[in-house]
Specification:
- This protein is of the alpha+beta class.
- The protein has helices at 2-51, 62-78, 257-263, 292-304; strands at residues 81-82, 85-86, 92-95, 109-120, 131-143, 158-159, 166-169, 199-200, 210-211, 231-234, 277-279, 315-316, 327-328, 342-343, 349-355, 370-381, 398-405, 415-416, 424-427.
Length: 431
């Protein structure tokens, strides 16, 4: 009996070893494959979020966006280790369930599948099994709320961080008419569908980005007219508190909370939608340079790494005139190897809120400086490599990269944005 038990125990221990070691190895590799798929899907969706494709009503550039998203998603997924080695590109598949043709909407999906068929076994070899297969799949979405109402769905607001304290009226800033809107103030749908890639000053509007009220609204809130299109109202410090961490080194020369909010990242999320109210700054503004626009330029120079000469800051790659837009690293770009090369993100990319003015409710006043955020523009500051700072009249040239509208109908828990981007990126596949 003792001999029989010893022989049986040998096989039982072997089976348990195979079950414990090989199964744990498979489950570990399966988790690693899932992490790789998640990372790849999020990276691919971020290409759509940062590119402006979700704002391009013509859908003319979805092929380029798919190609770029495929490349980025594959690169990110292939850097992950699954079962002891990194994935091969042939083991990664990228698809776009709702991108291309008539199925495309403002919320493109990216699906990444990872698979490894040669995962080695250990104790299970005694039964002749030498390899196992693990697969994983993840789908991520670039969520732009602008199209939800048009699709018959409830619009959920977004809430990006690092939003600059520039409250832009809901007026096409590239033109001269004070009646042409950017978003439908109720639904958030994009009403100026050709703005991506355009900017101000331009052929129609010679203004750059500048502050209304002469930079100080304590004496009254200036109403927008044809000559002031492209101007913004300064946001109240309570809504855009000066950041205290991760400020660039050059911010030591900035003296006002407003300048720090421009040069750094305001961590407080700014939401859009029915309950997203903020205030115009109606306190007396104490400038460090003499004007708020002068302060804005000084802080913006710090933000975009402009030191002394053209070419210091990043610029828009003029060979990519349609989304997905790409950017060239400037001479002072802090990322090693970025200088002169295409980059997907840049410190020159900033998000500014669009408010429900003109339009209901009545125009803001000193007695009631509250306004509602109905959307966001993501713009590129000083987009030309040859531009000299400061610009004329301290009005900064900008180019529109992305648009995301919520309108006053968006309700519910806001989705946190993709960092500073107003287009949120999120996994929508089951865990």
């Amino acid at each position: 009996m003792i001999v029989l038990v010893a022989v049986v125990m040998l096989f039982v221990v072997g089976a348990m070893a195979a079950l414990s070691i090989d199964v744990v190895t498979i489950y570990t590799a399966r988790s690693e494959a899932q992490l790789a798929a998640d990372a790849g899907a999020l990276a691919g969706a971020r290409v759509f979020a940062n590119s402006g494709v979700t704002s391009d009503a013509g859908r003319r550039s979805t092929r380029n966006a798919r190609n770029l998203a495929t490349m980025i998603a594959t690169q990110v997924a292939s850097q992950n280790v699954v079962g002891g080695r990194t994935l091969k590109t042939t083991e990664i598949t990228v698809t776009f369930p709702n991108v291309g043709g008539s199925a495309f909407d403002t919320n493109p999906h990216v699906t990444v599948q990872t698979q490894r068929t040669d995962l080695p076994t250990f104790f299970a070899r005694i039964w002749g099994r030498t390899a196992n297969t693990v697969t994983a799949s993840a789908t991520a979405e670039a969520y732009n709320p602008s199209g939800e109402d048009a699709l018959g769905e409830t619009t959920i607001p977004v809430a990006p961080i690092c939003v600059k304290p520039w409250l832009l009226p809901n007026i096409d800033p590239t033109g001269t008419s004070s009646t042409n809107t950017i978003f439908d103030s109720t639904t958030g749908a994009i009403t100026a569908a050709t703005l991506v890639g355009k900017g101000w000053p331009g052929p129609s509007n010679t203004n750059g980005l500048f502050s209304l009220c002469g930079g100080d609204c304590s004496g009254g809130i200036q109403l927008v007219g044809p000559t002031t299109v492209g101007g913004y109202y300064p946001g109240a410090v309570a809504n855009f508190p000066a950041p205290t961490q991760a400020l660039p080194a050059c911010s030591s020369g900035l003296t006002t909370s407003y300048q720090l909010a421009v040069a750094g990242c305001v961590q407080q999320p700014i939401s859009c939608g029915a309950t997203a109210t903020v205030n115009i700054d109606t306190t007396t503004y104490a400038s460090s340079t003499g004007t708020r626009d002068g302060d804005t330029v000084a802080a913006a120079e710090c933000l975009i790494h402009y030191v002394t000469s053209p070419g210091d800051s990043d610029s828009i790659d003029t060979t990519t005139i349609r989304p997905p837009l790409q950017f060239l690293g400037g001479n002072q770009n802090p990322v090693a190897g970025a200088v002169g090369n295409d980059v997907m993100v840049s410190d020159s990319l900033v998000t500014i809120p669009v408010i429900n003015y003109p339009g209901p409710p009545p125009a803001p006043t000193l007695a009631n400086p509250s306004v509602t955020v109905i959307g966001f523009l993501q713009v590129f500051l000083n987009p030309s490599a040859s531009s000299i700072m400061p610009p004329p009249n301290n009005q900064i040239p900008v180019t529109i990269i992305n648009m995301a509208g919520c309108g006053t109908s968006a309700t519910g828990q806001p989705i946190l944005g993709n960092g500073a981007s107003p287009v949120a990126v999120r996994l929508i596949s089951p865990p």
